[in-house]
Amino acid sequence: MPGKMVVIFGTSCILWTVFAASQAFKMETSPESRSLAQIGDSVSLTCSTIDCESPSFMWRTQMDSPLYATVRNEGTKSTLTMNPVSFENELSYLCMAFCGPDRLEKGIQVEIYSFPKDPEIHFSGPLEAGKPVTVKCLVPDVYPFDRLEIDLWKGDHHMKSQAFIEDVESKSLETKSLEITFTPIIEDTGKALVCRARLHIDEMDSVPKERETTEKLQVYISPKNTIISVNPSTRLQEGGSVTMTCSSEGLPVPQIFWSKKLDNGNLQPLSENATLTLIAMRMEYSGIYVCEGVNLIGKHRSEVELVVEAFPGDPEIEMTGPLVNGKPVTVSCKVPNVYPFDRLEIELLKGETILGNKNFSEEEVGNSLETKSLETTFIPTTEDTGTVLVCRAKLHIDEMEFEPKQRQSTQTLYVNVAPRDMTVLVSPSSILEEGSFVTMTCSSDGLPAPKILWNSGIYVCNGINQAGIIAPEDIKLTAFPSESVKEGETVIISCTCGNVPETWIILKKKAETGDTVLKSIDGAYTIRKAQLEDAGVYECESKNEVGSKLKSLTLDVKGRENNRDYFSPELLVLYCVSSLIIPAIGMIIYFARKANMKGSYSLVEAQKSKV
């Protein structure tokens, strides 16, 4: 269509020119016959006359379409201005000049184009070595695009060329592009990628026919080979420290990010440095630590698991009591604050003999410090004295070379022997005259040597050491005033035992039909007005936690004479003597207590201290 219009317009111009040659004045146009205008610009067409002082002008289009322009007449010149140029201005404009009766006409063909911007280069993503990428060279707002050609160069290598020879169905601005996919390599870095666009309009001398855009290539390498090094180990002691260093390869050099994986799977950010140091480690520091290398085009991560072991102290040895020869004792080997205890093994040895062994591998481990123990019972003998009892705890962690895997405690055994073979020596005699002195010496075998305690009154010697006390000894069963009394008299049967701690006293009257337990008060049973049937065998049983002892006496009750008064003079004398004996016994008890804790006691010295 534009070609036909050019032919018609050319023929008209020839006729107008022939016709104008016969006229008296002349006419000129600028540009002469053709104008190239870029859409959006401002273009002016000028028509002027020569040899006509007062011409008049008129502008019209060949097809009598609207001008889409403004006209300004000044003297011998008329200007038609298109501002801005649009598709409607792609017309043949005719300028008519009138000078009196004469008229001249001249036409100007306006052709438009659009090539306002340099090409644009777009990538489908960052250039990653070894990964295909699509590059697009885009030319925006071009018209007429059927005259457009695009070339793409990488350095000196011509990658692709494309022309757009196709029918233009409508007048519109089009964006055309060239696409190509290639695989960048690291050697492409620094090379120039050139997108060059040409609009083939030969007459277009005043504007660039060619535009290009250049972009230097930067090829990246996604992070890879992310490595974590841990010093000293991934298994650590509570209270210790650890340093983890992370490295990752890539271009540009990846930035390092540290985080800790939580129980819910989320990551808790920790640091953006390559080195992460943790000090004063606690059990809750156990878990999975994540190092991630990140750059512009990707990221890569590596993980490491830290286990904080709690094995802070040596085992503790405990016993249910002191070691006594022949008496069973339970020993406990306790390991406090251990984690994870499923790797714990406890062993208890007596010398070279293994008393017990236990591991906890089948128990379920929680996230807490646990105290585990091993218990065993054995019967010590005096031969065990000096033997070493060893409690050994092992935490089976192969990687933990920098800390002991084994802890142990030792205790040297010392077996005690309870006091025995007690003897009491009285010098000069156990029967004394008032005012004389006496020395009593007590001895007892045992390990360690027993401590001697004296009880006053009826003098009782007790031997005590760490092994315990002896079974009831020196049990005394007496009848006061005598084991032979007369019918109607009062008699007191008394049982005493001086062991420490105090013993239980049980008084009984023996009979063929069965024993009768007597209601005694502090081991004493009083028979008032003794009868013949009160005669018989009386037994005293003394008990403590170690053992018991028995003592018996025979009480004889004599019948009363008929010719004698119940209150005979002999009986009155007996009662008077009894009233004097009781205070004397009290004084003996008083002085004996003052001499308590000593191995011997002298009545003479006691009398002197009283004076």
From TrEMBL:
Top-level taxon of the source organism: Eukaryota
Keyword Protein biosynthesis belongs to the record: no
Function text: Cell adhesion glycoprotein predominantly expressed on the surface of endothelial cells that plays an important role in immune surveillance and inflammation. Acts as a major regulator of leukocyte adhesion to the endothelium through interaction with different types of integrins. During inflammatory responses, binds ligands on the surface of activated endothelial cells to initiate the activation of calcium channels and the plasma membrane-associated small GTPase RAC1 leading to leukocyte transendothelial migration.
Primary localization class, coarse: membrane
InterPro entries for this protein: ICAM_VCAM (IPR047012), ICAM_VCAM_N (IPR003987), Ig-like_dom (IPR007110), Ig-like_dom_sf (IPR036179), Ig-like_fold (IPR013783), Ig_C2-set (IPR008424), Ig_I-set (IPR013098), Ig_sub (IPR003599)
Segments forming domain Ig-like: 25-97, 223-309, 419-556
PANTHER family for the chain: INTERCELLULAR ADHESION MOLECULE (PTHR13771), VASCULAR CELL ADHESION PROTEIN 1 (PTHR13771:SF14)
Protein's name in the database: Vascular cell adhesion protein 1
Gene3D superfamilies linked: Immunoglobulins
Organism: Microcebus murinus (Gray mouse lemur)
Residues of the signal peptide: 1-20
Annotated compartments: Cell membrane; Secreted
GO molecular function, a single term: integrin binding
